[in-house]
Amino acid sequence: MNNTRRNFISNSFRTAVGLSIAPTFASFMQSCTVPNPKGATGIWEDLSKSLSGVLIMREDIDFTRLNTQYALAYLSVVPQAIALCKSEADVIACVKWARKNNMPVVPRSGGHSYAGFSRTTGLIIDLSQMTKISLDTKTNLATLEGGVHNQEVYKKGRAASVSLTHGRCKGVGVAGLVLGGGIGFNMRKYGLTCDQLASTRIVLASGEVITASATENPEVFWAVRGAGGGNFGIHTEFVMQMFPVTTLTSFKIQWKTSLEQIFDLFQDIAIDAPPELGVKFMVNARKMDAGNELYIEILGQLAGDKTQLQSILKPLYKIAAPYFESIQELPYWDAQEFLSEDGNPEYAHERSRFCFRKISKEGREVIFKNLQNWPGTSVDAMWKFFLMGGKIREISNEATAFSFRNAIFLTSIDLEWLAPDNGVLEENLQWLDKFHDEMEKFTSANAYVNFIDNRQKNHLESYFGDKVEKLKAIKRQLDPDNIFSNPQSIPV
Asked: Where in the chain is the domain with CATH 3.30.43.10?
């Protein structure tokens, strides 16, 4: 989705709910450490006294703003309290207290669950205050606290000229990113985010803390690399293998003409591209008075120079000249600023499918037909793919719980709306479901767990393929009472 749309949504959101959102949602969350003016009472008082952080109750001034998360459609699920943890000891205290008092809990790092699963009617254990990163410059191993967001990675990475596979949204928590696999423009050259995980510390439902790595609890380490989000425990620390960065070429290019030919040809270009190319390909629909207007956008980076990028894209220019083009050779972290977005709260639903072969002409026609027939909201809709392959595929599909390393694309359909669109929302959701179902024939039945989707059928098999039973067995060992659960979590 483009930055203009993101800014429009963010501004509209501020106006609609009267909130003052900080430059990024994550930085806002970290700023909310005002002492509780009323104080916890009853059983909550015991928890409050055990924390070095702040316990925010429903009656408190900051509660409404702290209760706001990325997925605005799910704000009706309201917790009784939010614990702003400052340390692993705070997390342990929360877990033990919740078990003693039979209180539902859910961990929250970035609060970016697409289905609103970082919400509960009980206690949110919030790690957004735990954002320290330390880097060993000799090994480039970085130790990240469990509440680190992409924005802290940007800051630390810029200072040390290192990176990991990260997303575009600065407000996304690294915890959710790495535990679900982790995609980004670096993934074809350096692997998924979970491939850069060296070890992690996990607070289990018992309050015990374990470390998972290749040599310590290796079965758990296998599971949390692709299926760890919200399933086995609360991750308070990640040790990541960073990689050095220098300069690259970032790009954003759009076409309004010859879209079918651009679509078909770019697939061939992408599949044959070197692993240094990371790209997101979008077919966008915009509601106009005369009908829906479609345009194609490619956004990404090349670990190479502008000449190399232009050579890769040259066949596209022979078909049609773009109506917008920005290609820049930049230091790595300046390029990420060009490519990034804040990831502020919004109304959205995204439905994904992994694709293991080129989209056929018939599949392309289904995409264009559905976008042309989109009922429309105040924002936009799109079909997109992220290019996979490269380093992702070099690692065995059995090496981690991430199940779809052989995919060439991760595709998805995005629907976004504003609060005034509620009258047409059901029609748009029906359109989204029909479109999603039609695309299974041309892609697969497999979906990306980090685009978690509460409308997804057979969700466990869709997210984890043939690894479901093994994951259930690990779940039974770590969380036999199913304390860490949501409507699509791994069952016991």
From this structure: 25-126
Q: What is the pLDDT of residue 348?
A: 97
Per-residue DSSP letters for 214-241?
SSSSHHHHHHHHHH-TTTS-EEEEEEEE
Q: How far is CA 233 from CA 47, 132, 201, in A?
A: 19, 20, 9
| pLDDT tens by residue, 244-262 | 999 999 999 999 999 999 9
- For 133-244+468-478, the fitting CATH number among 3.30.450.20, 2.60.40.10, 3.30.465.10, 3.40.710.10 is 3.30.465.10
- Return the higher-pLDDT residue of 234 and 289: 234
Indicate where the chain has its CATH 3.40.462.20 domain(s).
247-464
Q: Which residue reads 């093994």 in tokens? A: 470
DSSP secondary structure string for all residues of 250-319: EEEEEE-SSHHHHHHHHHHHHHHS-TTEEEEEEEEEEEETTEEEEEEEEEEEESS-HHHHHHHHHHHHHH
Q: Which residues contact 458 (CB under 8 A, 6 or more apart)?
A: 445
Q: 426-474 pLDDT, tens per residue?
A: 999 999 999 999 999 999 999 999 999 999 999 999 999 999 999 999 9
**pTM (whole model) above 0.70:** yes
Strand partners, 199: 213, 239
pLDDT at residue 148 in the model = 98
Q: Region 205-217: what's the mean pLDDT? A: 98
Alpha-carbon Rg of the chain, whole angstroms?
22
Task: Give the number of other CB atoms < 10 A from CB of residue 218.
Answer: 11
Predicted pLDDT of residue 430: 98
Residue in this structure with the two tokens 């990371």, named with its chain if needed = 278
At residue 1, the 3 state secondary structure works out as coil
The count of C-alpha atoms lying within 13 angstroms of the C-alpha of 83, restricted to the half-sphere facing its C-beta, is 30
Q: What is the DSSP string of 13-35?
A: HHHHHT----SSHHHHHHH----
Was domain 25-126 assigned CATH 3.30.43.10? yes
Q: What is the pLDDT of residue 35?
A: 55
* Domain at 247-464: CATH architecture: 3-Layer(aba) Sandwich (3.40)
